[in-house]
Amino acid sequence: MLKKILAPLSGLVILGACQVDSAKTVVRQDGIKPVVVTQETGHDTDDPAIWINKKDTLKSLIIGTDKDSDGGLYAFDLEGKIVNKVLGLKRPNNVDIAYGFKLNGQLVDIAVLTERETNSIRVFRLPDLTPVDNGGIPVFEGEKERAPMGIALYTRPQDSTIFAIVGRKSGPADGYIWQYHLADENGVVKGHVVRKFGAYSGKKEIESIAVDNQLGYIYYSDETVGVRKYLADPARGDNKELALFATAGFVSDHEGISIYPTSDSTGYVLVSNQQNNSFMIYRREGENGVANEHKLIAEVPVSTLESDGSEVTAVPLGSKFPKGMFVAMSNGRVFHYYSWEDILAKIKDK
C-alpha cells in the first residue's frame, strides 16, 4: 500500500487528526463519515474480515491484521474496541474467514491470514484466536517468489470443502495464484495445492482477493490494471479468465474488493480506488443478463485514507448497522466501520 498520495484529489480538506501518526492528513470533504473508528493497532492496519456470531449477531467481531515484522491479528467488537489479539506474527497481510471447518470431529469457524516473512499462511480458530496450524502452512514451495500477500477463502456449497486462494508479492505472468485445499490432519489444519492459475500484468502486485461463494467466482486486483475474475471451484477444470474490468477511473492502485449481496444472485462489488479515497461500485450480477460484464455504476467517496483491505456484510448488526456494515482499513492504524445505508444512499444518488 502506498503511503503517499500520488495525485491531486478533488473535494479534499486538510485536517488535524488524532487517529493518525502524522500531524496532518488529507481527508475527503465529500466523503462518507464512518459510524465507528476502531482503537489503534501497534503498527499498520492492512486488511479486515467480519465474523458473524450466529448465536448473537451483536457479539460479532471484526478481525484485522497489523502489518509489521512484529505484527499481529486483532479482534474488535462492534464498537471498535480491541477485545483480543495475537502478537508476534511476521508481517501478516490479508485475512479471511470461513465457517464450519471440520476439526477434530467438530465444526469450527476459522480465520486464515498470510504471514509474509515466513512464506506461510496461518490458521486461527474463532472467536478465541487459538492457532490450529502447528505454526503455519508453507505456500508457493519450490518457487523463487514466495512471499504471500492476498488471501480469500472459498467454501464449495455442495460439500462444504474449504479452499484458500493465495496471492504473492510477485510471480509469473500465468499461475500467479495458488489454491489450497484446507483439511484436518490429526487436529492440525494442513493445506494441499489443487490449482495454479491467474494472469498477472507484471506492473505491480496482486494483493486483494475476494470470493463469491454463492455464485462461485474469484476476483482479484491486478494493481494499476484492473480486477480479474475466475471460477472458484477447481473441480470445474477451467482456468480461463472470465473478465477483466475496473480498468478505468483509478488514480493508481486497485485494492480491497468486497461483495454485498442483495439476493442470492444480485448485489454489488466494491473495489478500493486507493489513492482517490473512494470505492468503485459494480453490479455483482453483471449487466443486461451478461454475468461477466461489469460496468462502473457509482464511485463512493469515503473518509478512509488510502484504504487497502475492506469487507462488507449484509447481516444487520444492531441499530448502527441495520442493513449491514462495510469495514475499510485506513491509514492511522485503524479500521473504519460504515453503515451500509450510507454507502447505498451514495450509490443511488449516481
UniProtKB/TrEMBL annotation:
This is Phytase. One of its GO terms (molecular function) is inositol hexakisphosphate 3-phosphatase activity. PROSITE patterns: BP_PHYTASE (PS51662), PROKAR_LIPOPROTEIN (PS51257). It comes from the Bacteria. InterPro entries: 6-blade_b-propeller_TolB-like, B-propeller_Phytase. Residues 22-347 form the BPP domain. It comes from Chitinophaga agri.
